[in-house]
């Protein structure tokens, strides 16, 4: 914090040092129980994954694919 006053740099360093905590919980630091990606280092990879997912969802008949069926099943479980 002595080397910069850039909030983004400070936030990235905080994320790297303390971890992301829980997105849907109350812990504000530490490693989450299920690690999907390193938020500080995998930003580009997450952007590519989001782009691929959006392209998939915009394709016609995506719901009839194996992945589409699985997404609907999981979505229905979340709503139950």
Write structural notes for this entry.
This protein is an all-alpha fold and about 80 residues long. The protein has one domain (about 5-80). Helices cover about 50% and strands about 0% of the residues. The protein contains 3 helices and no strands. The protein starts with 6 loop residues before the first helix and ends with a helix.
N→C terminal distance: 46 Å
Q: What's the helix-strand series?
A: HHH
Chain-averaged pLDDT: 78
Q: Specify the helix fraction band.
A: 40-55%
Uncertain regions spanning at least 5 consecutive residues: none
User: What overall form do the CA principal axes indicate?
Assistant: elongated
Radius of gyration: 17 Å
Number of E-state strands: 0
Count of the domains: 1
Strand content: under 5%
Largest sheet report: none
Tally of DSSP helical segments: 3
Briefly note the structural class of the backbone. mainly alpha
